[in-house]
Amino acid sequence: KNKQKPIDMDDNRKYRDVFKQFDLNGDGHITINELTVAVQTAGVNISKESLQSILKSADIDCSGGLDYEEFVAFLKLASKTAAQDSVETSPRLQQLFDVASDGFDLVGPDELKALSPDDHGLTSQESKVLTAVIELLQGRSVDLAEFADLWRKAEAAS
């Protein structure tokens, strides 16, 4: 019962555009050096070790670089890893997502609204941030990475 979002045409176009930006020499493959530059430029917070591990995992044909299909798989894995890296420093955030998502890959506003302050020991600050996150969702469901990003944005704004 995974609630994973399928890739639509707009996502595919975005992925192709990003792939072209990352492929600095235009050879149709993204190397670890090109990937490192692109990730740093984008300001993505992911450790070098995680990046190398993900690249190795995503490089299905062991060519030393990523073709387009491998790149799409890489983006999904990198997003999940970055969320896990950021959440590792915040077990509370991980706990809230796990409770709200009830074992699924996505969480929506209805699930988050069901988190009662009394049952889950939410502080008044966490309750305010959670309310802001629900507003930022605009009715859509998000994965852990997006939830963590929205939480940080809401936290910074409060």
Describe the protein in words:
This protein is mostly helical. It has two domains: 9-83, EF-hand (Recoverin, domain 1), CATH 1.10.238; 91-157, no CATH class. The protein is built from nine helices and two strands. Strands 1-2 form a two-stranded antiparallel sheet. The chain is elongated and about 55 Å long.
- Give the overall shape, derived from the CA principal axes: elongated
> N-to-C SSE series?
HEHHEHHHHHH
Average the pLDDT over all residues and give the rounded result: 79
Q: How many helix segments?
A: 9
Which CATH architecture of the largest domain would you pick?
Orthogonal Bundle
Fill in the CATH topology of the largest domain.
Recoverin, domain 1
- Which bin fits the share of residues in helices? 55-70%
Radius of gyration: 17 Å
Beta percentage is under 5%
Which runs of at least 5 residues are low in confidence (pLDDT < 50)?
Answer: 1-7
Main sheet: strands, sense, barrel: 2 strands, antiparallel
- The CATH class designation of the largest domain is Mainly Alpha
Number of extended strands: 2
Assembly form of the protein: single chain
InterPro entries: EF-hand-dom_pair (IPR011992), EF_Hand_1_Ca_BS (IPR018247), EF_hand_dom (IPR002048)
Domain EF-hand: 10-45, 46-81
Keywords: Calcium, Repeat
GO molecular function, one term: calcium ion binding
